[in-house]
Amino acid sequence: MAQDPLSPPVSDRAGDRYARELERHLDWLDSFTSTALGVLSAASGIYTYLGVRTLLDDPGLWTTFAALAYSIAVSVGIFVFWSYLLRLLPAVRGAASRVGLMLTMALGSVAIIAMSSWLNAAALAGTAAVETHMAATVQSYQTSLERAHANAVAGQSLSRDVARVRQSFSDLSEQEAGGTLSGFSGRGAVFRVLTQKGAELQALEDQLLGAEAPIEQTFAQGNTILSRMRGTSVEPGPLADRTVRFSGDAVELAGLITQLRQLNPAPLVGRAAQDLSDAVVLPELDGATEATRAGQSSTINAVLTLVEQRAQTLAQAAAEVMALPDADDALYTPMSAADAVIAYAGNFVPAWAGAISIDLLPAVLVFIIMVVQAAIRTGRGEGHSDDRMTVGELRAALAASDLLRQVDALSHQPPPRPADPDPDRREV
After folding, report:
1. How high does pLDDT run on average in the chain?
2. What is the pLDDT of residues 278-317, one digit of tens each?
3. Does 198 have pLDDT greater than 80?
4. CA torsion 416→417→418→421, rounded to 10°?
5. Are 276 and 201 in contact (CB under 8 A)?
6. 4 vs 8, 13, 89, 382, 384, CA distance in Å?
7. pTM of the complete model
8. Pairwise CA distance, residues 24 & 30, whole Å
9. Nearest to 117 by CA among 322, 391, 358, 315
10. Which residues lie within the region annotated Disordered (predicted)?
């Protein structure tokens, strides 16, 4: 059967039916798109309000009003921005216009993230972010405390080196008392030099041993505070109160770390080693004969050489302890929920994803409508003009047509004759 030359081709009719089907779907979806966009905007505004409240400390009426005004402005801005793009971007056909609107959408999306999404993330994960900051601070303080304690223990352990050197002088003094060193027994000048240095080392050893108890006590106090800080960072309760208590504990713990640094006796050993070789009081030689005094002088010179060697050994050991890495200066800086979310963004990727998605989800709708509009144009043809008419438009057209017919009928009626002013008048 031949096709009517006046009717459109079969492919055009199929494409038109396809386009009309898509248009019917778009009409149905458009009936609630604005409502859905309003709900998304309102939800973003609510979380924005909660995020702003975390930044404003004053709980007064004006603060509440300011946060509410900002959140409403954000909701309106998001709704208007995406409403424009939902209508305009799918409708434009030129490449330059489409690229321009896409760049505008990208710029607007960045603005929305800057004014809303980070506050939404603060509302979603602000408390958890502040707790993460507390936990990181506790870890930093623990590292500093352990390092300061290790350095102090290393300095205190120099007491064994001091005891070894002291014991060597004690043994030499006993040998001198028996006449083994200078060849003359007794407690003469050599003996007094040896006992003098032994007494200095004994006093230093006592100081080092006395530092052990304060070091361990300070370290135990620091661990107690650390345990309390860990509990504060995870316990339930208002975040502001916990932050205040955490700050107080942090200040106290920083003082204990400084105290541990001061308790490190390694600098004391270094200074004592220097004094050990420099400060020597030589006694008067008390030998009965010239040969005895010469022997005492020779032995004292040998003892002084030994003292200098032992002092260098102690000084080197103290320098090795002082060269150990020092404890870092742990410092707790309180953070607001918004700042903590940004500082620890990598730990809260789901919260950031949700905060950004609730603002930028309409972009997906924009791209969907763009694809559907392109499919409609392809099915109907680029040169086709939209001849659709809704039921309401059809009724309005019929009403207008009836009105035009009435006007036209009135225009073709003859004008009415003028009425006789005197009906009783008769012609003569």
Report:
1. 78
2. 555 445 555 555 655 566 566 666 666 777 777 777 778 8
3. no
4. -130
5. yes
6. 8, 13, 39, 23, 20
7. 0.66
8. 10
9. 358
10. 408-428
Distances (CA, A) of 233 to 103, 136, 238: 44, 10, 11
Q: Look at the block and give the residue holding tokens 């106090």.
A: 221
Is the Cβ–Cβ distance between 114 and 356 less than 8 Å? Answer: no
Closest CA to 321 of 144, 212, 161: 161
Expressed in angstroms, the distance from the first to the final Cα of the chain is: 82
Query: Has residue 223 got a pLDDT over 60?
Result: yes
300 Cβ contact partners less than 8 Å away, ≥ 6 residues apart = 189, 190, 193, 282
Spatial distance between the Cα atoms of 333 and 331, rounded to a whole number of angstroms:
6
Residue-wise pLDDT for 358-369, tens only, equals: 888 899 988 988
Do residues 82 and 362 make contact, with C-beta atoms less than 8 angstroms apart? yes
- Map residue 60 onto helix, strand or coil: coil
Each residue's pLDDT tens digit, 99-112: 998 999 999 999 99
CB 164 within 8 A of CB 334: no
DSSP string, 212-226: HHHHHHHHHHHHHHH
At residue 101's C-alpha, the angle toward residues 97 and 105, to 5°, is 170
Q: Could you give the angle at which helices 158-177 and 189-210 cross, rounded to 10 degrees?
A: 160
Helix (H, G, I), strand (E, B) or coil at 90: coil
Place of tokens 């003359």: 184
Q: Model confidence over 305-361: pLDDT tens digits?
A: 777 777 777 778 888 888 888 877 778 888 888 788 888 888 888 888 888 888 888
- State how far the Cα of 153 lies from the Cα of 135, in Å rounded to an integer: 27
